[in-house]
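This part of the workshop introduces the protein records we will be handling. A learned vocabulary of local backbone shapes supplies the integers on the structure line. Getting from the letters to the tokens is the skill we practise here. As an example, a complete record with its sequence and its structure tokens follows.
=====
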Amino acid sequence: MNSPKVNKQYGRDNLPDQILTALGNAGKDLDNLTRADLGTFDEFHIGGLAETRILISKIPDFQQGSKVLDMGSGLGGPARTLADEFDCEVVGIDLTQEYVKAATVLTERVGLSDKITFKQGDVLDMPFEDNSFDVVWTQFVGMNIEAKQTFYEQAYRVVRDGGYLAFHEVMAGENDGLIFPVFWADVAEVNHLRSPETVQEILADVGFEQIEWVDLTQASVEFFEKMLTARKQQTEKPPLGFNIFVGEETPLKAQNIIKNLDAGHIKVVQGIYKANK
């Protein structure tokens, strides 16, 4: 993975302090934060918490106490959902150090540090033993990864026989001409979308068996339309949304996502795959 370009895309200096300041300005009690206080921004992907719960529900026979690896864990929202609502042991790995720091701080603040560990590292070369996780989880990460084969090979390596890969990703649509900037790429150099068909071929080649494949493109348009409407209606306290760490371009990037979805430049899919070793 091209670390400098990805870190430039996502890295923000003193991100934990910026997030805590925003929470305080919004009237949250920093000494008694809850997952609900973080719910409007910590699940940094289309659909937010609702889609995380849906994706979990699609994993066959998902068990409390499962050991889960979150590849590209970001601010840690999905990891906290898995740990808190399903009593899972979760390890998150992310390339961006400030995200790892923020994820760790927020997890400590909501009292889930005993169930979750975050590490800074490259998902293309992970420091985990083979067959060490029941589920490998990834949401909105693959868009920045050019070496898709290696990405999914790493997922296959660390998941146990009979375990599952669960993902929620943006993929290339039928039409070229992606409109920038978007949340995962301000410029083309860090955009590495592939078509759903290509991703399916790679997953099969790696050894995964497809269990579930759902196109969420239209639902994603509706999600961003609601986000923009809610932002316009916000009048009292500073909004607690992706703007905390994305910045002033948040509305533009959300609008561009809608344009790209409508124009067929991108698709959004959820998938569940089983590792047969």
Residues 217-233 form the longest helix (17 residues). The mean pLDDT is 91.
